[in-house]
Amino acid sequence: MPSGANLLNLFLTLSSTRKERIMLSLMLYLDEAHASGLMGHFGAKKTEQVLVDHFIWPKLQRDVERYVLHCVTCHKAKSRLNPHGLYTPLLIPSVPWEDISMDFVLGLPRTKRGRDSIFVVVDRFSMMAHFIPCHKSGDASHIAELFFREVEQVNFDASKRAEYVKKIHEQARANINKMTKMYEKHANKGRKKVLFEPGDLVWVHLRKDRFLEKRKCKLQPRADGPFKVLQKIDDNAYEIVLPSAYGVSKSLNVSDLSRFMGPVESRTTPFQEGG
Ligand SMILES: [Zn+2]
Which residue ranges does the record assign to the Tf2-1-like SH3-like domain (predicted)? Predict the structure, then answer.
């Protein structure tokens, strides 16, 4: 592998204009200070410190920051979850039994009637809950029947009295609104809104729990890319064009994505290959 000085001479003979020569020299200095044999891909601040001990040029700090931001090796080795994406609350319902959640508590001791599970239906507006005993083996049509019998009928009368309790509803809605705003403020602390467009190139953070195969060994890269954004699902989720070898779903959370800044490679790739 040619040394930094040899490379510099090589480039100096190849390039014609003075500006180009200076640019290439700066790139080599940056490369030496950040990614050469004795350097360990330090962050922008430390790389800058190494340089200012020997050189100084206008906008050195900016150049170092840009260089580190574009370093492919750094991205792959130091990737982590990003604080991207804001908390997006559900729409606030305006009347009871308009927006409900359903869940099951399964595997309980069997009752005399053979019921071993509880079907739980909660109204997001009034927080009223129905606990309906059922069978673990009950299919969708049976559950639907239970729902209409136990929930719809009981609350039908309540909806008829809607006018009467309208005022209470308005107050409840205002309360939920206030609590949501408070929670939203808390949940979004330290997070930032990052949006991508179809066609954008991104790094994908290889989350341990999701990319099990790719993170078996500690020394494996923590990120891969760049990959193309295929489409936006919502502000916090994107469909990414991942190679089929990944074997995971192509929709990823925005906290796993960071923008691909450019193709500047560190010296370890092109220069080593040539030498
Ligand atoms: Zn680096």
Answer: 199-260
- Ligand 1 centroid–CA 198 distance in Å is 28
> Tokens 């190849």 sit at which residue?
14
pLDDT by residue (tens digit) across 46-88? 999 999 988 888 889 999 999 998 898 898 888 888 888 888 8
Q: Cβ(257)–Cβ(239) under 8 Å?
A: no
pTM for the model: 0.60
pLDDT digits (tens, 9 = 90+) for 96-106: 788 888 899 98
**From the centroid of its chain, how far is CA 181?**
22
Cα 225 to ligand 1 centre (Å) = 15
CA of 82 to the centre of ligand 1 (A): 18
Ligand 1 center to 264 CA (angstroms): 10
